[in-house]
Design brief:
The chain is an all-alpha fold. The chain has one domain. Helices cover 69% and strands 0% of the residues. It contains 7 helices and no strands. Helix 4 crosses helix 6. The longest helix has 27 residues. It starts with a helix and ends with a helix.
């Protein structure tokens, strides 16, 4: 009986994950869950892996989640920047070549840098921009060496 229950969970549990991904192509719910939480969000390894696979789609999800609102607190801005960093932490894991190009991410970071931010927040936004650019440049360099 236990084996039957485990089989059903494994067999049909995956359908929910696939279905959710097709209904939320920008992962708005995933990225929004990290940004909107109060306190320090706890990130499970499977959620982190899902974020690592998003790449530029994470910025689209963040923009859709934020709408016309600006980050309400420095903590919310930190969470937004953390999501962007996680999305480009492992460029090899990003599902699509298109999502490896940080076009929407650049626009999001440009928008955030134009906001009246307090303290060193503008420097954090710029550090995130540099991090994303460096990750993509290193990935492209590695791919060029592997092709030779």
């Amino acid at each position: 009986m236990k084996r039957l229950v485990l089989f059903v969970l494994f067999a049909f549990g995956q359908l929910g994950i696939c279905q959710q991904a097709s209904q939320d192509p920008y992962a708005e719910k995933l990225v929004g869950s990290f940004v909107s939480r109060a306190g320090t969000p706890i990130i499970l390894s499977m959620q982190e892996k899902a974020l690592n696979r998003l790449g530029d789609r994470a910025a689209l999800g963040l923009a859709r989640n934020m709408g016309a609102q600006v980050p309400a607190s420095p903590q919310e801005l930190d969470r937004i920047l953390s999501v962007v960093r996680m999305a480009f932490a492992v460029p090899e894991a990003i599902n699509s070549d298109v999502d490896r190009e940080p076009k929407a991410t650049s626009m999001l970071l440009s928008y955030l840098s134009l906001l009246p931010l307090q303290g060193n927040a503008k420097a954090e936004v710029e550090d995130t921009r540099v991090y994303v650019s460096r990750q993509i440049a290193e990935y492209k360099a590695k791919q060029a060496v592997e092709k030779k």
